[in-house]
């Protein structure tokens, strides 16, 4: 496990870290200077497509009375929920489109089809996760705050069930994220009572989660009249598909073999911009694939680029990925990228491997990454 207390992350010298930071800053600034009408047109087009899929899917489910219509409607609804969650909601709430000054597409006003209240999610995700990426005990996105995520963590018998718990988490991911955003796990594990402020926050989340569940599982089926069973099944399927898909994408970006975790006994307030960049580079992974895959992942298939530049428009991550990879190569850092199936399999292998005591299941990493990873984890003299 890498320590970010080390002043030379990734085995780089302070001068190299500074130069790396300057090169990545230049990439970011180039996008900031160039963003404009085509970026605004992109997000508006994606929103139109998402709403068309949702309305069209609902109409087909309402009017159709055969299995073909159910499959078409359910597929459209599933895609609508995925786009709303991934490419639109996640990125709008990041503030990626605030520069447009469009009050309808702004991080302070956007409402998404999700159990987490936007403000709560922004605090937990934008402020906490993106500041303390892959730091054990500080980043709940790393193993969702409930799993063993590194060999250096002491093994305990309760970790034996983490593959099962991870599968359950995938199915209820929307509600799991809402719970994690409340930091309830810390209170439960520590046996602490909820403060009045935390109880009020939990009540807001509960009300929103119940409202979301009522919308999908009560209101829409009720509006379908005699076809309510088909609509209920379609909504349940779409929610499940969205949850499992989102969970898989997040796992691929944070948890596969070859991604580093960090320890931070005390918060290092002096972490430089370059050091923060290196931590994002070592603690992230990408998914290789076609443009449709990138769209459906919310461009979190470019998780490395997103962690480096969370405020840039998501449609630009694919464009800058080759330049970012050049920086990796220049400083001899491992750029972890695999196709979707391999990345999901790698992440699940790690979940199972770390559920067991060290050494019970062999670690698997691509052969071409091993020399670089040995260098990264070696302590400088």
TrEMBL record:
Q: Name one GO molecular function term.
A: oxidoreductase activity, acting on paired donors, with oxidation of a pair of donors resulting in the reduction of molecular oxygen to two molecules of water
TM regions (residue ranges): none
Note the CDD domains from the entry.
Delta6-FADS-like (cd03506)
Q: Which InterPro entries match?
A: FA_desaturase_dom, Fatty_acid_desaturase
Q: Which domain of life is it from?
A: Bacteria
Which biological processes are named by the entry's GO terms?
A: lipid biosynthetic process
Q: Give the signal peptide as a residue range, or say none if absent.
A: none
Domain called Fatty acid desaturase: residue spans: 70-337
Cellular component GO terms held in the UniProt record: membrane
Q: List, alphabetically, the Pfam families matched.
A: FA_desaturase
Full protein name: Linoleoyl-CoA desaturase
Taxonomy, top ranks, is: Bacteria, Bacillati, Actinomycetota, Actinomycetes, Propionibacteriales
């Amino acid at each position: 496990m890498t320590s970010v207390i080390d002043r030379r992350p990734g085995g780089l010298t302070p001068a190299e870290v500074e130069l790396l930071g300057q090169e990545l800053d230049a990439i970011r600034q180039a996008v900031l200077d160039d963003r404009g009408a085509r970026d605004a047109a992109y997000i508006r087009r994606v929103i139109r497509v998402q709403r068309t899929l949702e309305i069209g899917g609902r109409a087909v489910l309402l009017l159709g009375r055969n299995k073909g219509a159910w499959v078409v409607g359910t597929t459209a609804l599933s895609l609508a929920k995925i786009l709303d969650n991934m490419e639109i909601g996640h990125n709008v709430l990041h503030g990626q489109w605030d520069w447009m000054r469009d009050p309808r597409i702004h991080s302070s006003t956007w409402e998404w089809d999700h159990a987490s209240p936007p403000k709560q999610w922004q605090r937990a995700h934008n402020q906490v996760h993106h500041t303390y990426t892959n730091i054990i005990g500080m980043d709940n996105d790393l193993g969702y705050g409930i799993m063993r995520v590194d060999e250096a963590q002491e093994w305990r018998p309760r970790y034996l069930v983490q593959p099962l718990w991870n599968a359950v988490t995938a199915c209820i991911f929307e509600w799991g994220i809402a719970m994690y955003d409340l930091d309830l796990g810390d209170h439960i594990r520590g046996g602490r009572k909820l403060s009045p402020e935390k109880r009020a926050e939990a009540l807001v989340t509960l009300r929103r989660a119940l409202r979301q569940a009522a919308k999908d599982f009560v209101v829409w089926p009720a509006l379908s009249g005699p076809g309510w069973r088909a609509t209920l099944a379609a909504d349940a399927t779409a929610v499940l598909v969205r949850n499992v898909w989102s969970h898989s994408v997040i796992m691929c970006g944070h948890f596969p073999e070859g991604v580093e975790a960090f320890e931070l006994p005390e918060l290092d307030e002096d972490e430089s911009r370059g050091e923060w960049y290196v931590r994002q580079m070592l603690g992230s992974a990408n998914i290789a694939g076609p443009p449709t895959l990138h769209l459906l992942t919310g461009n979190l298939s470019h998780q490395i680029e997103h962690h480096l530049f969370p405020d840039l428009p998501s449609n630009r991550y694919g464009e800058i990925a080759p330049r970012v990879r050049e920086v990796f190569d220049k400083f001899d850092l491992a750029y972890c990228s695999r196709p979707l199936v391999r990345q999901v399999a790698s992440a699940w292998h790690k979940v199972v491997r770390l559920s067991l005591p060290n050494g019970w299941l062999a670690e698997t990493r691509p052969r071409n990454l091993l020399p670089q990873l040995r260098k990264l984890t070696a302590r400088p003299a």
